[in-house]
Amino acid sequence: MPDSPSGAAPPRRRRSDARRSIGAILDAARVVLGERPEASMEDVATAAGVTRQTVYAHFPSRDALVGALVEAAAAEYLALLDAAGLDTAPPAEALARFLDVGWHFLGRHPLVLNPAAPGAPQPGRNALSAAVPPRLERLVRRGQRSGDFDAALPADWLADAVIGVQHTAAAHLAAGRVTAREAAALCLESTLRLCGGSLPVTKTRHGHP
């Protein structure tokens, strides 16, 4: 005999439906809030193809929705960093790869990496600020041990400085002060100078958001 009352969806189906709704809402929020950080919950609901009440059933406030979006983005960012081989590539090349991941990520999550945008999660108050800096600090420390980077400054200081440069580049790009190619080139050159490293001319690259 069925476990649920006649006409009611079984628990497994309800959970599956809820997961699909949450996924659709987060995907819509990523696009809508990335394009219009001031967009409303109703705008997100429309883009997701669900009702406003459904959005609020899963995310009781706009802050809760943005927080969930940042958590999902952090997991995606870490997966990209894992795939970039930061612990095995030569340190300067690994630093360039780290920045490339950031520019790729910015293309999908402009709200997350643009702290100047209205409603954006602020540095030091989200999952990315806890997950990403340790990866970069480990990379910088490895470069200092190998002699590829200057060891005169603390690795954690340099990691924070590199992330600051990346945020500045994202803000300049969002404001239309530089092109994507210019922002990526300036970001790479600035971070290499900060760390005292350099790339072979044939390996110098430009990111593409």
Q: How much of the polypeptide forms β-strand, as a percent range? A: under 5%
- End-to-end separation in angstroms reads 54 Å
Share in helix: 55-70%
How many strands appear in the DSSP assignment?
Answer: 0
SS field, number of helical segments: 9
Order of helices and strands: HHHHHHHHH
Average of the residue pLDDT scores = 83
Report the radius of gyration as a whole number of Å. 20 Å
Poorly predicted parts = 202-209
Task: Quickly give the structural class.
Answer: mainly alpha
Sketch the major β-sheet: none
Judging from the principal axes of the Cα atoms, what is the shape? elongated
What tags apply to this protein structure?
mainly alpha; 9 helices; 209 residues; disordered C terminus
